[in-house]
Amino acid sequence: MSERSGDTWVGTPPAIPSDKTGDGCLVHIYPPGPDMGRRHVLGPGRVVLGRGDDQDIRVQDNSVSRTHAIVEANSDGVFILDQKSLNGTFVNDTPVQGAHQLGDGDYIRVGNAIFRFLSGGNVEAHYHEEIYRLTIVDGLTQINNRRYLEEFLEREVARAVRHRRPLSVLLFDLDKFKAINDQHGHLCGDHVLRELSGRVRPTIRREDLFARYGGEEFGMVLVETDHAQAVATAERIRKLVEVAPFTFDGVTVNVTLSVGVATLDDAHRAAADLLKAADDRLYEAKRRGRNRVVG
User: Fold this and answer.
1) Strand 107-110 and strand 246-248: pairing?
2) Distance in angstroms (rounded) separating the CA atoms of residues 245 and 254
3) Active-site choice (129, 151, 216, 224)
4) Does the annotation count 216 as an active-site position?
5) What is the mean pLDDT of the chain?
6) Peptide bond preceding 13: is omega within 30 degrees of 0, i.e. cis?
7) Nearest to 9, CA basis, from 113, 141, 109
């Protein structure tokens, strides 16, 4: 199957009517842009997702087939069916085989685009909650975003200064990430970012914060953590990513990290100071040859 970029739909879709059916809606949560947060009301009947200009939900992305997937609402529930698309349809990162019934809160991925399914009932309240969530959570990785990290760090710096407690920040960046996208495609790159987040997130304490800082860069705020402990945490995360290759569509990708570490002290007593120091040390790690921690 061939996909021609020249056929990509361009323009603004018509306004989406309010949900009166109780079948729920799809909310566009990734990638960021004018469509993020757009609600698509479902049912009854079929809604077609695809890149073609005659589809009900048009996704302007060359990784999406012209007719990519169908969402159908009936008396038994809401189901999604892949239409033999080039890159597949996924629900919660599991490939769709046959008719897959959707559950409230499921994540649907078609190409690079991600939607979230909100079921019927009080869909208005769920929708507004989802819009708020989009302001603090990264749609691709489902961890907090830069905005929330900066707000969290401001609060924690004030608390640490007031109580004279340690506080550290890590910034880390995937080495040569552009080469992964260039060699294996953006779908593979997105998979690596999601998988990395999935690996690291379970290792973080509940009181700490892990966020996508931007692009292939991630950040952590480590409360009650001195510099030596922060450097040890950074090294543990670096090794966690290095030791096990990432696999996407039968392709093995080796990934390494460069990490910068900064700790609250007399020279760095503000959130912006900490972030700048961590960023400077991150780029020092890259200058020294990548795949290392600089603190």
Assistant:
1) unpaired
2) 5
3) 216
4) yes
5) 91
6) no
7) 113
